[in-house]
Amino acid sequence: MKKMMLGNEAVARGLYEAGVTVVSAYPGTPSTEITEYAAKYNDIYCEWAPNEKVATEVAFGASLAGARSACAMKHVGLNVAADPLFTLSYTGVNGGMVICVADDPGMHSSQNEQDSRHYAIAAKIPMLEPADAKEAKDFAKLAYELSEKYDTPVLLRMCTRIAHAQCAVELCDREARENKPYEKNPAKFIMSPANAIRRHPFVEERLKALAEYAETAEVNFVDEGKENAMGIITSGTSYQYVKEVFGDRYPVLKLGMVNPLPTEKIKSFAAGVKRVVVVEELDPVIENACKALGISADGKNILPITGEFSQRIIAKAFGMSDKDFVTLDEPVPVRPPVMCAGCPHRGLFYSLSKHKITVLGDIGCYTLGSAAPLSAIDSVLCMGASVSGVHGFSKAMGGKWDGKTVAVIGDSTFMHSGMTGLCNIAYNGSNATVIIVDNSITGMTGHQQNPTTGYNIKGDPATKIDLEALCHALGIERVRVCDPYNLEETEKAIMEELAVDAPSVIISRRPCALLKYVKHKAPVTVDKEACKSCKKCMKIGCPAVVQRDGKAAIDTTLCTGCGVCVQLCPFGAMKGED
Amino acid sequence: MKTLDVMIVGVGGQGSLLASKLLGKIMAEEGFEVKVSEVHGMSQRGGSVVTYVRCGERVYSPIIDKGEADFIVSFEKLEAARYVSCLKVGGTVVTNSQQIDPMPVITGAAVYPTDILDKLQTKGVKIDAIDALSLALEAGSSKAVNLVLMGRLSNYFDIPTEKWMAAIEATVAPKFVEMNKKAFALGRDCR
Ligand SMILES: Cc1ncc(C[n+]2csc(CCOP(=O)(O)OP(=O)(O)O)c2C)c(N)n1
Predict the structure, then answer these.
(1) Which residues of chain A neighbour B119 with C-beta distances below 8 Å?
(2) Of B152, B5, B146, the residue nearest B65 (C-alpha)
(3) Beta-bridge partners for A437
(4) Peptide bond into A260 cis (omega under 30)
(5) Do both A536 and A426 map to the same domain?
(6) Confidence band for A40, pLDDT divided at 50, 70 and 90
């Protein structure tokens, strides 16, 4: 039977068919749906871990116990999981273990464009890279065979255009599989220096064996071409663009395994064509490997190193002209993402921007507080960096800047990597104020549960981490809660905590307005007579508050009746339901 | 075999994913190889969103680029203008006539262009505009704009109504089936 499947859904299907029983992951676009789909199979235990390092180590533990296991993350998640990754390379596995990592060329939803193939090379771990959903499923299954045969974790590299593109996938049955027996094996699984010294040569030998496998692996294949004036070496989504542009005109070496590379195969392919071009998104990984083999390949000299490719970008690189098209003659205003109408983050950021507070921000829906008109954020680096950063900021500023700086971090992000920073604030004593925006969900990635929500990935009740108690336990005495829909209460909390010479936490608490159980109020109404067109209500950047004929108006299809705009109107022109 | 490239564009939250899923399913049943490409994540928060539905005997690239689309289905006028460069010469834009101001317009940093659809028409773009929001409300929810527009688009293909209705039943949650079918019919039959 065939089914239209997203690439990520196909990976999940591959895990299912391979007999995987344990999956742990932290959400991150474009990887999230791998775990969401895997969780639909009752034969697989699935969970949201608090971060990618935990997820990877959970998968390690399951592999140690003899199960086939997986973890999944976005490219930057692999940075967080890099510590277990590099040493997992040494221990190898018991049951097969696969690490799914999704890159985001073009940064549709990411803070950087790193190329995760470098991790495979640096950690000396094999990496497979599918070019569509069908391959995503097949490669996921192959990854388990390789993992167990070569005693290694295997990286499965996805990217946005594979993860979020659907095509027809043939479904197969689940492999019946028992856990491999568990036996204590300190020399393999205790990576003390003495043991690790003995494991490192094994890693090098394994890489050689894998390189040999790569030479004959079916996933590295040549599409014959009609002309040999040029030969193209490519992989993943770039393969699709190449085929779209050239069809079967030139031979194409398509690499399904991107680490280690099949050097002999590459050499003989190159020998059969007059010019070699490597078409790969992001960094020149395959290109550099070709050059190291003495092949003078074109690549980044004609193709961009930044952003994602398309058939048009490839065509242009080969000197082909554009297809005809029309455009509007005037500028089309951009439409950036915005905080939703009714978003609880809005009231908090309005209060911070009103008092010109310096905000070290973090990653989540609340990053949108950086956009105009709120423009309330000064920095965003990586998950958790707000909390650690505000400590460094206040240490560097000494007393001079006191009372003007806060960190803002989401509930999921706080559990991911904000806790350790808070512990540092308490331990190393700065009077920083940390605001946890607790909307009772992991919002940005599409509503995943997390340890503070009280539910697990299946939606069943789970232990709910008490944020107040946690902050107290991390050494913060001053912990208070405010409702961001209430501007007066929120401002009071911020100003009071900033005035105190002690570290503090404010939990700005209101569930995400998009959560199914959140009841919306009737839309706000505007008394056109009373409106004096002062535009105060426009300062919160709510998509439901617009101007029509010079007066404030409400888009009733969007308004949730949160009432934040009502509190801003000095003329009482806006009315909300009580 | 023919090929068919359709771009579905709109504002995050308007339901373009469901529309592309429905179209992909129908075209796969018609015997095409189909690729549907979506963007999840960040842009779904009220940003500009685009999905691609590509159909043919053999489809490679999951995306559509400049001058390639046979149809652009636009859930909002400005989005039609934003992506019109992806339309083939002679292609058709099926669009909702609704205006949704993006944040730079709301804050006064940019202006919403006037008479967008007329201007595109004078450039030779075939424009098929309907008030999909009103029809969606008539069907029972402002959220059904997506199905109204799919109904409108369906007029360009030789596929019987029953097939579309069956695909809707197979694609949407049971309690929304009737509303969505009504929205589809309103879009298909409106003049
Ligand atoms: C290391 C890393 N993992 C995952 C992500 C993807 N990601 C971005 S924001 C976010 C979660 C945000 O949730 P929360 O902190 O609760 O804020 P909300 O979006 O709900 O406001 C995730 C998982 C990332 N950017 N970096």
Answers:
(1) 328-329
(2) B5
(3) A410, A508
(4) yes
(5) no
(6) very high
CB contact under 8 A, B41 and A33: no
Domain ranges in chain B?
A: 4-136
Boundary (domain end) residue, out of A216, A236, A268: A216
- ipTM of the assembly? 0.95
Only one residue has tokens 């771990």, namely A125
Contacts of B88 in chain A (CB under 8 A): 323, 325
For the B4-136 domain, the top CATH level (class) is alpha beta
For the stretch A204-263, pLDDT in tens is 999 999 999 999 999 999 999 999 999 999 999 999 999 999 999 999 999 999 999 999
- Whether pLDDT at A79 is above 80: yes
Same domain, A56 and A107: yes
Q: How many CB pairs under 8 A join A and B?
A: 186
Confidence band for B108, pLDDT divided at 50, 70 and 90: confident
Residues A114-144 have pLDDT tens digits of: 999 999 999 999 999 999 999 999 999 999 9
Residues with CB under 6 A from ligand 1: A 26-28, 74, 76-77, 80, 363-366, 383, 410-413, 437, 439, 441-445
A-contacting residues in B 140-179 (Cβ below 8 Å): 142
**A-chain residues within 8 Å CB-CB of B82?**
332, 335
B46: left (phi over 0), alpha (psi -120 to 50) or beta: left
Q: Left if phi > 0, otherwise alpha if psi is -120 to 50, otherwise beta: which for A475?
A: left
**Contact state of B78 with A332 under an 8 Å Cβ cutoff:** yes
Q: Are residues A38 and A99 in the same domain?
A: yes
| Yes or no, beta carbons of A543 and B106 under 8 Å apart | yes
